[in-house]
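pinging the channel bc i need a second pair of eyes. not urgent but kinda urgent?? the chain im working w is below, pasted from the shared doc
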Amino acid sequence: MTDLPRNVVVKAIGTPVASNAAAKWFRALVLATGLCNAFDDHGVAKADPTMHDLRHTYCYYMANGLVKPDGTRTPSVPLTTLCRLAGHATIAVTAQYYVDADSRDLITAASYVC
């Protein structure tokens, strides 16, 4: 089994981007999009997005799929695959942090006939 690449942010030619350069790029992007210094519906300041938030969002949608505007959902990836992508030691860790069983999932699971 081959090791996965360790660098998430790379240049177009595939060479790694230094973590401090990636952090500066991300901060500039967040500022440009107006996501910094945001407030929720109750006027409470939200935490500024971080690069770790990107990881969490990616893993969440990989584990659960994405609900499209028409109500359909894109497929999720197997937990074994996501566990490896995330670099977790066990599938249990991946499931604990990223799998979200909503009511439709529970109804579907309950409808299976053994």
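so Helices lie at 19-33, 51-64, 79-86, 91-98, 103-110. and Residues 1-49 form one domain. — does that match what u expected or am i reading it wrong
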